[in-house]
Amino acid sequence: MILPIYTFGQPVLRKVAEDITPDFQNLKELIENMYETMSHADGIGLAAPQIGLPIRVVVIDLDVLSEDFPEYKGFRHAFINGHIVETGDETDLLEEGCLSLPGIHESVRRARKIHVKYLDENLEPHDEWVEGYLARVIQHEFDHLEGHVFVDRIGSLRKQMIKSKLVNMMKGNFRCSYKVKIPR
Ligand code: NI
Questions:
Q1: How many Å lie between the centroid of ligand 1 and the Cα of residue 55?
Q2: Most buried residue, 44, 92, 154, 179, by CB count within 10 Å?
């Protein structure tokens, strides 16, 4: 089922998301709905707060990048109760976008390597260092779990330059090709 994506200005995007507990119901269905919602909107990552749920569930699909990054062929994974434990010192500056901020693309500086802990879709625990493009996408998605969006991480001058776009977005004055839930 395709769910509406909550856009910039929705309070849920500013909440710190909670770990889910073992008695959480319908996790498989939630993950399937998140994959479907993400691919319908041509996204490569989606965090549960973006569909209105303040819980630590993220889906990432990097298969579309496999022409440039063959290592991501068929890469489609859920990250449950994910946390970044530590980040490496080296950083990269790369352009990002977000399904919750349609039409905005800005360069963001992020660590090249991160140490993450999470459960996969079968609730198996993982504790690993991740690098490259996946490390960037995980940082973007896990930011959503901490109540951050990528424009929080851009320079103040760039932020000033997109301010009117953000104000319009909060009022629902924007276009995009997928179903959204705007702030009211
Ligand atoms: Ni995002």
A1: 15
A2: 44
